[in-house]
Amino acid sequence: MTIARSEVEDFLYAEAALLDEWRLDDWLGLLTPDCVYRVPPNDKPDGAAANTLYIISDDMERIKARIVRLKSRNAHAEYPHSRTRRLITNVRIVASDEVSATVAANFVIYRFRREEKIREYVGTYHFKLARVGKDLKLAERIVKLDAMELASLGSVSFIL
Amino acid sequence: MSTSPYVIDEPERLTFRVNRRTLVDEQVLAEERRRIFDTCWIYVGHDSELRAPGDFRTRTVCGRPLIFSKGSNGEVRVFLNSCRHRAATVCRESEGNAKRHVCFYHGWVYDADGNLAIVPGKESYPPNFDQSKFGLQQVPRAEQYRDFWFVNFDPNAMPLTDYLAGAKEYIDLVVDQSPSGKMELIQGTQEYDIAANWKLLVENSFDDYHLLSTHATWLKYLKDSGVEMQAPAAGHLLPAHGIGKELGNGHAVIDNINFRGRPVARWIPLYGEAAKPEIAAIRAELVARLGEDRAARVADTNRNLVVFPNLVINDGSAVTIRTFHPIAADKMRVTAWALGPQEESASARARRLDSFLTFYGPGGFATPDDVEALECVQSGLRTWQEIQWSELSRGIDKTGEQLNTDELHLRAFWRQWDKHMMGGLDSLPKAAE
Ligand code: FES
Ligand SMILES: [Fe+2]
After folding, report:
1. Interface test with B, best of A113, A155, A158 (most B CBs within 10 A)
2. Which of A132, B118, B318, B395 is the most buried (most CB within 10 A)?
3. Beta bridge partners of B80
């Protein structure tokens, strides 16, 4: 059976919950060993990471290092942790078969820090999912922001 | 002895302090705009951003909307992006190529050289209306050094090459990594705000005193990846020796022996085994072209350069150009780009960009913590009426060389800043008190 949207939605919501709850080790468990996580620059959202200066371009080694960093109380930009709340909607299956799916979804992430205005990160998720055993796993995680420049969004110090 | 209300600069008493009001007061900012941003050479863009006739980039520099562009004969010009009719911004795209710029409000049309080409309904203008006098206006001065373009809003400013003084040597060191002497700006812009006074980013950009504590997670990442870190030598805080140096006219630099890897050309495990031969080849090219000593200078040191007042060129894990402008006394807009040799191979380019992201930028392992530090400073500055002075005396009693973790280079910036603000460097009328 090809991977269906209902299963993809369940997966996306579960992933969002782990990130919002800062259960970062559990989140790592959702990724395939060769997963990549990328955030392209606001002004060149379609540029390739090999010849474009990205905001984030992590292979699995660096994703793991990012999690080590974020769990440290020396990750000053995220200590104390921001509170985030993700709303995910307009989930679309771009392509799918029995073992993989390319999906797109819209998101809004509200980020709260002490004594700060709410920051709203709005954009689209472009994910590749793979069937591993009976579970879905993330093989590619591209996050595109709609803002023309980061501007008052400041840093992308948490996982988008 | 100094009599400035802003800076206490008394070397004979081993004292250097900065009044915290300079970092919070909107009146100080208004005065900075006039005395510093409107009289100094300010970075606008890199020559490689304009390739073909008609190429343009629009940017806000010193609060003014500008068009950085290449004319029909290849000449670079910087226009004020404001219609000569009734002021609308003429060009509204961030970049592109255009034979003509059309002001959509009433339809005046300018060509790529800025001439006013078409005026709809021209018959209604009086006979003394001279269309040739209404071209797009250029900034008073625009000059370049080794493809770095700067503007100056003071028509009487000294030439750029004089202004840059000792900073030229450090720009040369960056450009020397290109076999052809041509660097290029890599696409992708990091543009973000920091809720802090712009001068705090000047300080932070070449303040190695904060590295151990602010960037503990980045240092751990390097160490975990297999980078060898020696125990600091006596009197040092960091694994390798580095110095702070004044370069004249308020420019200054930290110049460090590299321990953290360089895409040109010092391998670290993060680059992967497969990168070793290419990095060795890049190194061999440097040696053949520049000789052993100069090649080592280019490849084995990393340098953070501040060109007064608001340009930072960091030649470290990659080359980053960073410029920033105040939006308010407690807010700035930062724009950062990556620079690389024009002839760089695809694999070397990818490695350079990857290396950039390990440290720099809003998603890097270090910059977000710098942003947080600066915002914490700004927050603490709300006590400026009770705690008046910040302390910048590290290394002040040393004779000779000062370390990158001392504060000589920060003092060089502040001294020049104070000279401007006290009216010692311009002929502007004194501000009304
Ligand atoms: S303001 Fe540009 S044509 Fe009128
Ligand atoms: Fe820093």
Report:
1. A155
2. B318
3. B66
